[in-house]
Each structure stands twice: as structure tokens, then as C-alpha cells.
Write a structure and sequence with these properties.
Blueprint (H helix, E strand, L loop, with lengths): L1 H16 L3 H7 L4 E7 L9 E8 L4 E8 H11 L1 H4 L7 E7 L2 E9 L5 E10 L4 E9 L7 E8 L4 E3 L24
Antiparallel strand pairs: 1-2, 1-8, 2-3, 4-5, 5-6, 6-7, 7-8, 8-9
Length: about 180
């Protein structure tokens, strides 16, 4: 009798654990979102990201803007720990490129040395806007090391990626486009 109860409880647990991430997100009303980087030089809203949520059950699109000072806190809390096995000491930095302010984003180490480039909304390999977040090298193809999708609760879901964590990236592949003012 006790064994039967335990087996049924185990079966129920296994059934619950087999829910996919998408089913759980749907049950919690957490929606995938698309993002697009907005540099202050070409955005009236300032530096940050536009966040787009498409609701397939309605013909409805929601576009919100997250300014850089809020986005930086969000990604350092919710994205950095997904990128590295040990994320302490790393942070995000934005800077100019070819006279455009806040045009580039890097993840940098504790000394401020760029570790990799970050793209919000643009696939650096195809140059298409797809709304995903990518981390990689702007110098060496294939450019994308990791890809993420922003979710409506401000977290980031890792998509199939070349490296599970960025410590696996060979040092020779960590070339990035430097910040420049001219």
C-alpha cells in the first residue's frame, strides 16, 4: 500500500517535471519579447532598449522603452549570471564608435578590459533584426557565442549557443571592436 502511494507520488512528480519551459512560461503568463538597442545618437528616448511583446491571441503589439540606467541593473542581475559560470567582477559598458555615442556595448572584466560584444536585437552574423540578445566577437566570425531571449518578467532564456559559459571561449577569439570617438 505504502509502496503504491510512493510510486504514484513519484509518477506525479515526473509528470510535473516534464513540463517544458514554454509551458511553464505560458502558465505563468510570461511572454517572450523582442528587443532593439537604441543609442542616444539616433533615438529621441535616449540610450536603452525598445522591448516589443507580440500577443498572438490579439492583434496587439506593446512597445516599451527601458533606459540604460535601468537596463544595466536588469542585465547585470539577470543576464550576467547566465553568461558566466562565475560572473562576479564582470559588468556591462557602453561607449562611442565612429563618432556615435553609446553605439557599442561590451561585457568587461574587473579591470575594464572588454571580454565580448553584446548585441540587442541584431544578429551580427546575418545583420538581421530578430529581437534576440547575443554575446560574441565583432571581429572573428562566427560572431555569436551565446544567444538569449528576453522574457516579460525581465529574465533571459538561453537559446542554443556555441558556448555554455563564456569562460569556455578561447582567449584568441575574444577580440572586440574598441570604443572610439572618431
Amino acid at each position: 500500500m505504502l509502496l503504491t502511494i510512493l510510486l504514484r507520488a513519484l509518477e506525479a512528480s515526473i509528470t510535473i517535471m516534464t513540463f517544458t519551459a514554454r509551458k511553464i512560461r505560458k502558465a505563468l503568463s510570461i511572454e517572450p519579447q523582442r528587443v532593439l538597442w537604441c543609442a542616444s545618437s539616433n533615438s529621441s528616448k535616449g540610450t536603452g532598449i525598445e522591448v516589443r511583446t507580440d500577443n498572438p491571441s490579439h492583434i496587439e503589439r506593446t512597445v516599451n522603452f527601458i533606459p540604460w540606467h535601468e537596463l544595466k541593473l536588469e542585465i547585470e542581475k539577470n543576464l550576467l549570471p547566465r553568461m558566466f559560470a562565475k560572473s562576479s567582477g564582470y559588468r556591462f559598458a557602453i561607449g562611442p564608435h565612429r563618432g556615435k555615442e553609446d553605439w557599442l556595448m561590451h561585457v568587461v572584466d574587473s579591470n575594464g578590459k572588454p571580454y565580448g560584444d553584446v548585441w540587442f536585437g541584431l544578429d551580427p552574423d546575418t545583420h538581421q533584426q530578430d529581437g534576440l540578445v547575443r554575446v560574441g566577437s565583432s571581429i572573428r566570425p562566427p560572431h555569436t557565442w551565446q544567444a538569449y531571449q528576453r522574457l516579460s518578467n525581465g529574465t533571459y532564456e538561453r537559446l542554443p549557443s556555441r558556448y555554455w559559459n563564456l569562460e569556455e571561449v578561447p582567449e584568441d577569439d575574444r577580440e572586440v571592436t574598441p570604443f572610439t570617438n572618431s
